[in-house]
Design a protein that fits this description.
Elements lengths: L8 H11 L24 E5 L24 H11 L3 E5 L9 H9 L4 E6 L7 H10 L5 E3 L13 H14 L3 E3 L6 H10 L6 E3 L10 H8 L7 E5 L2 H4 L10 H11 L4 E3 L12 H11 L5 H15 L7
Parallel strand pairs: 1-2, 2-3, 3-4, 4-5, 5-6, 6-7, 7-8
Helix pairs in contact: 4-5
Amino acid sequence: MSTHETLTRRAWLARAAAAGTTIAGQHVWGAAITAGGAKDMPIVDSNVHVWKSDPRYPWAADLKDPPKQDALPSTLLEMMQTHRVDQTVIVHVMYYRWDCRYAAACVRQHRDKFMGVCRVDPQSPMAAADVDHWVAEGLRGVRLSPGPGPAGDWIRDRRQMDVICGRSAELGVPLCVLCSTSRLPDLEAVIERHRDRLDVCIDHMAECPIGQPEELKKLLALARYKRVFVKLSHLWSLSRQEYPYRDTHNQVRRLYDAFGPERLMWGTDWPVVEQYCGYGSALALFRDEIKFFTDEDRRWILGGTALRLWPSIQSG
């Protein structure tokens, strides 16, 4: 059993139902959560990418090796239907750099199924305006990716980071951060300054290697900030074993004990996951294979937590 205080099933369903109401006749993200989820459980994939070779959405000028195959929303929707995944968060892929039009177009076309997260150039003087623009276009989150070397030192630029984080907080959208554990101390300084008003999601468990407890401590330290969340994903790339990657489960347990299920969420990172276990197995990994999760835990990790960060979607 979880050592954390968890909501009762009735209270949890009441919160989920609140996320699925309508406002002034507009469709609201979460409204279809019981359509496919087993045991009245919403299933929300917190991290996928889509792209298409299309002159309307050109690759970034400096992209030297564009993808040879498309990752289309139609393919994703088919897999979601097959595996009873109700909704999905599309994270803008870097093949387009800061041009998030394709992700925005996919969200507009499938508002009942997709939520979107944009990227902005963290070193641009127009970063705050870019956040405004993409949120107005229907994307409801911002991803930043500070690398481990000097090129990622922009995260230490207090003025610039406060502009981006401040605007995200004002708009009520979460900041998703893709980084290695080496950047977590820098990120913690940012979180500390915005701890009371900005939701922050650490993507892919900060790629924390298994068997390096000192690195894991950097991630666990962020649990004291109540608005910090973690995506449970990329177990397949961290593991030294075959599916279901049991050598990573202890690390998941450490995160579970620190953050609680209500601040953890699964994600496939489709289509990257197809190089490893595949989409359906990525869901089964968190639904079936990690044995210390209770049914209540799974309701949070497989959907409820994502609906805390992305509770509604605008229409029109």
